[in-house]
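We modelled each protein-ligand pair independently. The example shown here corresponds to the zinc ion entry; the chain sequence is given first, followed by the ligand as SMILES.
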Amino acid sequence: MPELPEVETVKRGLQPVMEGRVIARADVHRPDLRWPFPTNMAERLSGRAVKMLRRRSKYILADLDNGETLIIHLGMSGRMQIDLADTAEFHQAAPILKKHDHVVLHMQDGTRIAFNDARRFGAMDLTDTASVERHWLIDKLGPEPLGNEFDETYLIGALKKKGSPIKTALLDQRIIAGLGNIYVCEVLFRTGISPKRKASNLSAARVASLVPAIREVLTEAIESGGSSLRDHRQTNGELGYFQHNFAVYDREGQPCTTGCGSKIFRVVQSGRSSFYCPKCQR
Ligand SMILES: [Zn+2]
């Protein structure tokens, strides 16, 4: 499942080929992904200029010149495949439709952008740009962790009455938008907070320490996504998932990176694996 940094990386990869460019033609090869596509999606996209690409939580938003916004969600396995018009490969053989290329945007400059999604948990929808924050996928989301609304005062207030474990509370998209399992594990390790600790029992100072840690962990991942992006664009133009190195995530049984002598443990909370060091995280 891509998390916020991966979605931000995909958005940054799409910006140079979409922003300020015209979608000459959209091909839509099936009626739905996770949910049905909006009515006449191909017609509504064809001929439209993309004014701006934005991200809200794990959604990529493409504002079009007709007052509509295309909402793109990568789901579990969604990828964006970019084939530039000026690459050698393109001239040798125009890219053929690959299996699971469900929506293909043919840009006016010849670039081809395919939304490929083998498991079909992804989604695309069109909505009025003016009311995108009221769209049903977006209207219940909390503030962006890298935005101005998210700060120490906000988080202390939001967690004050949460009886759930801190791990579960931080995964609640109504509290913070876009934070997922991997980065919550990393944030809790970095702040020395046990994933099992009840959110409402944490001191204000410890809750406050989560805010810079969340920002750091996400920013570092976005930066590392940026370097993968350069590699990926040089290779096959596919935007989707990147390998990161994590301190605790998926490291069960391996030694803690602080050198404390303990191993990383795994516990299942709300159906998700939490990885933590019992010695460093209290
Ligand atoms: Zn440790």
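The domain at 152-276 is CATH 1.10.8.50 (Helicase, Ruva Protein; domain 3).
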